[in-house]
Design goal:
There is one protein chain. By secondary structure, this protein is α+β, with helices and mostly antiparallel strands. The protein is 21% helix and 36% strand. A 5-stranded mixed beta sheet has the order 1-7-9-5-3. The protein has a 5-stranded mixed beta sheet with strand order 4-2-10-6-8, with no helix packed on it.
Length: 201
Amino acid sequence: MSETPVTPPVRNARTTALICVGMVAGMIGLAYASVPLYRLFCQVTGFGGTPQIAEAASETVIDREMKVRFDANTAGIDWDFMPVETEIRVQVGENRLAFYRATNLSDTIVTGTAAFNVTPVFAGAYFSKIDCFCFVEQTLQPGESVEMPVSFYIDPAIDDDPEMDYVKTITLSYTFFETETPDDSDDLAYKAPAPDAAAVN
């Protein structure tokens, strides 16, 4: 018995279906790839108020003072999170260190990661972080409190941007989200001290 030949309309339909599947797969792949690319773009350009990551400390300080405010938020994580100081005054180009305090209010080990931005958003291109707790995930034991530093400066190039002349205050804002705790978290948990052998005897 001979096979029934595939008619052109059926062949065309199969070709169209394969093309559609390929396009959907390509769009999904692009969506996943676009997340790190978007983050990189924001870090390089300061787009959306994303601060810059400096490779070294500032070596130039100019005669312009600005106020830096510190904001703290949490989303879906049982932590108390706040700045140690709510605002400071800095000279543009001056290297400064600020601290945020986080406390794990839960009875379990919790790992968090911090998203960050500055406002006004156009100031992101001039707010440079040298080092920051937000560069890595933070794991806190039950009830543990820590002070976490952020080292930064305001790029003197801000003085050359006429659109930034009106800016007197920059707000650095963080939001902590809960992330998956590492598999070795049991090694970080509090453990009751072993009984003293002499006391037992």
